[in-house]
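Risk mitigation, structural track. In case the binding assays with adenosine-5'-triphosphate fail to produce interpretable data, a predicted complex structure has been prepared as a fallback.
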Amino acid sequence: MSKQWVNNLQKLGPVIGLIIIVIILSILSPSFLAMDNIFNVLRQVSINALIAFGMTLVILTGGIDLSVGSILALGSAVTAKMLADGMDPILSVLLGLIAGGVMGAVNGLIVTKGKVAPFIATLATMTIFRGLTLVYTDGKPLTGLSNSFSFQLIGKGYFWYIPFPVIWMFIAFVILLFILKKTTIGRGIYAVGGNEEASILSGVKVNRIKVFVYTVTGILSAFAGIILTSRLNSADPNAGMSYELDAIAAVVIGGTSLSGGRGWIFGTFIGSLIIGVLNNGLNLLDVSPFFQQVVKGVVILIAVLLDRRDKK
Amino acid sequence: MEPIVRMTNISKSFSGNQVLKQVSFEIVPGEIHALMGENGAGKSTLMKILTGIYSRDEGDIQVNGRSVDYKDPKDAEKDGISVIHQELNIIPHLTVAENMFLGKEISISKTGILKTKIMRRETKKHLERLGVQLNPDKNAESLSVGQQQMVEIAKALAAETKVLIMDEPTAALTDREIETLFKVMNELKSQGVAIVYISHRMEEIFQMCDRITVLRDGSCAGTENIKDTDLDQIVRMMVGRALGERFPERRVEIGEERLRVEGLSNPGLFEDVHFSVKQGEVLGVAGLMGAGRSEIFETLFGARRKSSGRIFVDGKEVKIKNPYDAKKAGIGFVTEDRKSEGLVLELSVKKNLSLPNLKTLSNWGVISAKAEKAMADDFINKLRIKTHHADLQVKSLSGGNQQKVVIGKWVGINPKILILDEPTRGVDIGAKKEIYQIINELAAQGVAVIMISSELPEVLGMSDRIMVIHEGKVARILDKDEANQENIMQAATGGYRCVETMGQ
Ligand SMILES: Nc1ncnc2c1ncn2[C@@H]1O[C@H](COP(=O)(O)OP(=O)(O)OP(=O)(O)O)[C@@H](O)[C@H]1O
Ligand SMILES: [Mg+2]
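Fallback model:
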């Protein structure tokens, strides 16, 4: 029994880490724990968290997706262009999401049908999708999109004190948590990452599962882009650069194994909170952005090192 | 004689579950000492403690009269203790030679520049000693399980060994390979090497060993001289009761044809395979390793691509392109290699059992936790899988119990046809009988059972008909009454065909 306890404690490692960081920051900077700052942090976190949630699924299957930043850019560009052309906001958003889903599905198909390693496949599509975004927007930001109230709500709205992006994040979290814990697809995701061969021989539709995780990641990345567009009322073809790194970092800090089959989405949520809180706190403390990078890297290392311990 | 290894009062717990209780065990130079016990009795764990893979909670280990406390297997190796592990530890993308010298590569003084030529030569030499002809540059993943096992054995023999621990080395070997292995063991014994021999095959124990120590539920049930004991006594020591008939009787009305295979081919592996199996029938499949037995059924199951051939289930042709189709057609397949093909080791016993059954356990893709738990508990009971609970990771189960999980997976789909590839490999004598009983029960329910096995007594004891494969062709199909060791071996080595063609 005692060992079980230790295991559970270790699983909670990221949570404890988060609490420690929050305590330190709130001592150093009293404004940190103010209600509006908390929601501010959560809102900043939501973009990365949405992408990282998808990334968690991909990594659980033993894959990786480097193209999320480019999908974000093209997804938001599609929506922005539609809006600028005067299309119905809901339809524009839907088209942006579909674009994201299609790009994700393309990733999945290259990985499954083309049998290309996920790292290589998405490295290639990362460039391709970025290039397409630049072609599509002519390399210029799309601005002054719409004064549609409903579109602005997506990124700027509030429900009571809670910013809409935070609500989106929670909805995505709950849905994915449900999928992972309760559905056959979720079980398949863990099984494929744990032993692909055995999964195939058990009659699990491995290819379908892989296409699914990349598609979900594509949709979530595009949605993150749409939220950004709604907040800024513009779409930048260079948006989302190197977002894949923050997303992967959140997944890893949360305790999901990069080799697949082992991990959880709650950990990823905590992981993105840790990154977000650090960003926000270090900003409040006026730490130079250069040094912030060092801190972030160190945190990732600590997380992985702690995770190593339960291997023996 | 002074023991070379003396383990006294060893205890060990995993997460609060005690798996070894005050076990004492010793080996003297020049003996082959059998270590027996049911699946999960703690044999592998005891040996892993000896070699420093696990740490002990209590007890003392002396090697050559000196107390030792190995921190990892390398320490033990320095004292001349090497192990052939139950689970294969071959790295697929490395060559045979690279696997042989993994961790102890020969290099030019200490530069780390490898002397590949010498290593290749040594590899060849050690393998030839075991009667194995293998190209040292071959990729390990292209080897059969038996060949991989031989590489592991050669690897252990390459080291200066004083104590050799063999954890079920013959589970994946053919009779001929086993014979050579036994010759080498006797050679080592005459050189004064002490050998610990773990096996579930009683015949081998009586043939090879001098003494036997039996573990039961983590306690020592006693040590005997082989000369002074017999099978019944050992079984009683192992399971605490007599077992009775080795192969339980089956009284089943054999029914309509369930499965018919016509002209199944996969060039390079096998050709033009015809056979059929009826409801309630058990078809044994014999043949030498490498004859293509597994490949035929992997292809039938859709795990390999066939070039031609038709498959009929209950008289209707079915198209099988992948294992999913096979499952849908009512075919289950208990694979040969449980670690790489049968189980998702990180997942729990429950989740492994339910994996091929998720469709029936779910509604609109949502798994019913209750149904899943009930199914898992049901199979843990029925198959007597020894696990503390259904949520334990399957990798922490003993080898034999892992095997039962793989069988349980497929029994769960309520198959029309169940293919079992070496279903009792590494399984203890009691559990073997339970597996035979499961097979009989399935047959009684009208399942057509196909059992591939390298253990001839098992094939003879369990089958209604026996299909013998030789070099990718069906050499002969024998009825239960006419089959015996001789005519099976004759057909398996190509003898039958020769006789037949000469007669014409
Ligand atoms: N790393 C581990 N964590 C938790 N439990 C373990 C671990 N290794 C072994 N066990 C448990 O210890 C017991 C003994 O296992 P062990 O592998 O030693 O059995 P065995 O006698 O070698 O059986 P078999 O004949 O099936 O190989 C089993 O109940 C097993 O589940
Ligand atoms: Mg064992």
